[in-house]
UniProtKB/TrEMBL annotation:
<feature type="transmembrane region" description="Helical">
    <location>
        <begin position="232"/>
        <end position="250"/>
    </location>
</feature>
<feature type="domain" description="Major facilitator superfamily (MFS) profile">
    <location>
        <begin position="15"/>
        <end position="473"/>
    </location>
</feature>
<feature type="transmembrane region" description="Helical">
    <location>
        <begin position="12"/>
        <end position="33"/>
    </location>
</feature>
<dbReference type="InterPro" id="IPR004638">
    <property type="entry name" value="EmrB-like"/>
</dbReference>
<dbReference type="InterPro" id="IPR020846">
    <property type="entry name" value="MFS_dom"/>
</dbReference>
<feature type="transmembrane region" description="Helical">
    <location>
        <begin position="82"/>
        <end position="99"/>
    </location>
</feature>
<dbReference type="InterPro" id="IPR036259">
    <property type="entry name" value="MFS_trans_sf"/>
</dbReference>
<keyword id="KW-1133">Transmembrane helix</keyword>
<feature type="transmembrane region" description="Helical">
    <location>
        <begin position="335"/>
        <end position="355"/>
    </location>
</feature>
<protein>
    <submittedName>
        <fullName>MFS transporter</fullName>
    </submittedName>
</protein>
<feature type="transmembrane region" description="Helical">
    <location>
        <begin position="367"/>
        <end position="389"/>
    </location>
</feature>
<dbReference type="InterPro" id="IPR005829">
    <property type="entry name" value="Sugar_transporter_CS"/>
</dbReference>
<feature type="transmembrane region" description="Helical">
    <location>
        <begin position="168"/>
        <end position="189"/>
    </location>
</feature>
<feature type="transmembrane region" description="Helical">
    <location>
        <begin position="305"/>
        <end position="323"/>
    </location>
</feature>
<keyword id="KW-0472">Membrane</keyword>
<keyword id="KW-0812">Transmembrane</keyword>
<dbReference type="Pfam" id="PF07690">
    <property type="entry name" value="MFS_1"/>
</dbReference>
Length: 485
């Protein structure tokens, strides 16, 4: 005789509010800091080569430890992990807000990423456990997804307001009250839950992949300062290769791998993960230079820069609604290829910027086109990552997708910053500075080169989808995973 289903938890909707609040904090932390970065760089004396660490320290730690964080939450206790993650995020934010130099800020951002890698998957796992009814779960994940999608827009505006009317430090300090409220409400409203079974963790795999990626990013940084053939750049690249190869070997032999390699060999899922990595690389790296272009070249205030960046989010939201309607009819591949081409075209439009580009005539349409392309791509991407995956591996497949986005963002930001810094130095060498205003010309040249490389990354990702993906609309899972960051 089948046991009756357990009644739904009475505090599940209150728990959704708490988890959504924490998720908003994790999501907006990427864009809110981007808006504050020009002021933070100037105030702390951070070099152009090192400024990317404000972004990459967070995304590397988050992406590199996300899968381990999910497993820790399952077996250590999801509520406990959620609370520790939120408190740790608050402490790390306080350290960042009080930073006295670039190194302290980089370390705080890395610490934020570590605790975010505990907080985000714990919240998602709690939603899965709390909402057992299919209809309610779909509604809860819709709310969670809306927060994830809208959080970036909130971060752009809030970052502008805090930087302009308070101080750039408040873009980090604002996380403290949010974290405190989330913890205080989680204690009475969020129930504890944990998985049963073997609780061993793949610590060697997590260390190898995270340190390997840090070495790779450090190599890019040294290359921008000392040249691609400099000793420290080559040593860093060598260490990265050794550790990343070791990671693959560890995963092949581990009984509890951080990344189940079987998830990667399917051409549809492999295409999805490669596309996710390349889009993350091109997108977040390009946003970094767009922020500097608005504030340093065009002279926008932080708030104006935040508002000026919203067309991308608007395009994503519009196209995502269209893609949701079209995907059951035409499948993922046409949408992703179309979206990738459109997004690359938007990035190409950004290569036309000058020192005096108009917002309405160039920047608005370019960002809108970029957002429309991304929106068409993101919706089918989440489902494509689950094609052919059983229920027991669905969480891992979704987590790998999120990890590839974060890792791609880290590597792309570092690579594009190195390329831009090198391009600026080359422009100055070819055009001796006789007027201070020429420094803006050098900066714009470096941004144009970065946008061109970002467009190339988007184009390569689109080509891989065209070549690798064979899934059609009948192959898609009925409920795509929710993103954790």
């Amino acid at each position: 005789m089948t046991a009756p289903a357990a009644p739904p938890h009475p505090g599940r909707w209150a728990a959704l509010f708490v988890i959504g609040l924490a998720q908003l904090m994790v999501v907006l932390d990427a864009t809110i800091v981007n808006i504050a970065l020009p002021q933070a760089q100037a105030h702390l004396g951070i070099s152009d080569a090192d400024r990317q660490w404000v972004v990459t320290a967070y995304t590397l730690a988050f992406g590199g430890l996300l899968l381990l964080g999910g497993r820790i939450a399952d077996f250590w206790g999801r509520k406990r992990t959620f609370v520790v993650g939120a408190l740790g995020f608050a402490v790390a934010s306080a350290l960042g807000g009080l930073a006295q130099n670039g190194e302290m800020l980089f370390a705080a951002r890395g610490l934020q990423g570590i605790f975010g890698a505990l907080l985000a998957p714990a919240g998602l796992a709690l939603l899965t456990v709390l909402f057992t009814d299919a209809t309610e779960r779909a509604r809860a994940f819709s709310v969670f997804g809306a927060i994830a999608g809208g959080g970036s827009a909130v971060g752009l505006v809030l970052g502008g307001v805090l930087t302009e009317y308070a101080d750039w430090r408040w873009c980090l300090l604002v996380n403290i009250p949010i974290s405190v409220v989330a913890v205080v409400l989680a204690l009475p409203f969020v129930p504890e839950s944990r998985a049963t079974g073997d609780t061993r963790y793949d610590i060697p795999g997590a260390v190898a992949v995270t340190v390997g990626l840090v070495a790779l990013v450090y190599g890019f940084t040294r290359a921008s300062e000392d040249g691609w053939s400099s000793r420290w750049a080559l040593v860093s690249f060598g260490v990265a290769v050794v550790l990343l190869v070791a990671f693959v070997l560890i995963e092949r032999r581990s009984k509890h791998p951080l990344v189940p390699l079987g998830l990667l060999v399917d051409r549809n899922r492999g295409g999805a993960y490669l596309f996710s990595t390349l889009v993350g690389a091109g997108l977040l790296g390009a946003f970094l230079f767009l922020t500097f272009y608005f504030q340093v070249v065009l002279g926008y205030t932080p708030l104006q820069a935040g508002l000026a960046s919203l067309p991308v989010t608007g395009g994503v939201l519009i196209a995502a609604g269209v893609a949701s309607q079209l995907m059951p009819r035409i499948g993922p591949k046409p949408l992703m290829v179309t979206g990738g081409v459109v997004a690359a075209a938007g990035m190409v439009l950004l290569t036309r910027i000058t020192v005096e580009s108009g917002f309405v005539t160039l920047l608005l349409p370019a960002q809108l086109v970029l957002g429309l392309g991304l929106g068409l791509s993101f919706v089918p991407l989440a489902s494509l990552a689950l094609v052919g995956v059983g229920n027991q591996d669905a969480g891992a497949a979704s987590a790998v997708l999120n990890a590839t986005q974060q890792v791609g963002a880290s590597l792309g930001t570092a690579l594009l910053n190195t390329i831009a810094t090198t391009a600026a130095a080359s422009w100055i060498a070819a055009n001796p500075i006789t007027d201070p205003s020429q420094m803006l010309d050098a900066a714009v040249h470096s941004y144009v080169v970065a946008f061109a490389w970002a467009a190339a990354l988007l184009a390569i990702g689109t080509a891989l989808i065209l070549i690798l993906v064979r899934a059609n609309k009948q192959d898609l899972p009925t409920v795509p995973p929710a993103h954790v960051g």
